[in-house]
Design goal:
By secondary structure, the chain is of the alpha/beta class. The longest helix is centred in the middle third of the chain and has 20 residues. The protein is globular, with a radius of gyration of 19 Å. The strands form two sheets. Strands 2-1-3-4 form a four-stranded parallel sheet, with helices on one face. The protein has a four-stranded parallel sheet with strand order 6-5-7-8.
Length: 257
């Protein structure tokens, strides 16, 4: 049987496929699929997550394409079905969904050497990291996680980021559900919402907007009583192979004075 020809249109999925030993099977990626750098450097790019070059991708003849409900457009996934034998749709929305993701990818590529063993190792690593979070008793905090400015944008309570933060007792605001997909999952703020005065901690993400030290004062003005800090957005939003490291990083943030 010929090895699969895999296109990944999701940064987290690309990293996870490489962790499963499937790097040599990758024939396409997006320009945002940058990790691990040495494994993806030679893999052709086919645009971004929202603007996939379908004609270029079609010429690469993938047998499998991995997409994500949050990252990719529905119409892209539908168009792929016209020329791709297997479109794998991912949608981790809670930390524990990583376990289902590892099984989903293991089942799709179980015929490839080492995939079953690597999937089991990733699952064990993640389960252990989740247990390290849940064995502790956390002091609850009200948190604003910012992903953009002009306008300020944050995350709904049913996103992966929000549910990850909840593992250390951090409740994100606003208290809204974003639904399965769409802009509602990443609400914009006016900046004068009354609840901003009750925020304990503001987290400035490194992606998709690269917040830096120059933005701390702005965020402090938004939530005068809060502690403001820069955080690694990849560790707090990338699921899959990075999930365990994200939980450990989060524990470290919550324990720091």
């Amino acid at each position: 049987m010929s090895p699969p020809r895999i296109a990944s249109l999701v940064p987290s999925a690309t990293e996870t496929l490489v962790a499963l030993g499937l790097g040599p099977c990758l024939v396409a990626r997006t320009g945002f699929c940058i990790h691990p750098a040495e494994a993806v450097a030679a893999v052709p790019k086919v645009g971004g997550t929202k603007d996939v070059n379908l004609e270029k991708l079609k010429k690469l003849a993938p047998t499998h394409v991995v997409v994500n409900v949050d990252e990719n457009r529905r119409e892209t996934a539908e168009a792929l079905r016209d020329f791709v034998p297997q479109v794998i749709v991912t949608h981790p929305s809670r930390p524990e969904d990583n376990l289902a993701l590892f099984e989903q990818l293991r089942a799709a590529f179980a015929g490839q050497p080492g995939v079953n063993e690597r999937a089991a190792a990733l699952s064990a690593e993640f389960t252990a990291a989740l247990a390290r979070c849940r064995v502790q008793r956390w002091l609850g905090e009200q948190v604003l996680y910012l992903i953009w400015r002009e306008p300020w944008m944050t995350v709904a309570c049913d996103t992966y980021i929000s549910t990850l933060l909840a593992e250390v007792g951090w409740r994100t605001w606003p208290d809204v559900q974003g639904g399965e997909q769409g802009a509602g999952r990443y609400p914009a703020l006016d900046g004068n919402e009354p609840w901003l005065r009750g925020i304990d901690r503001v987290l400035l993400s490194s992606e998709p907007y690269r917040f830096g030290s120059a933005h701390i004062a702005e965020a402090q003005a938004l939530c005068p009583q809060a502690r403001v800090q820069l955080v690694d957005g990849e560790l707090l939003s990338w699921w899959g192979a990075r999930g365990a490291a994200g939980l450990d990083y989060l524990r470290g943030l919550s324990q720091a004075t």
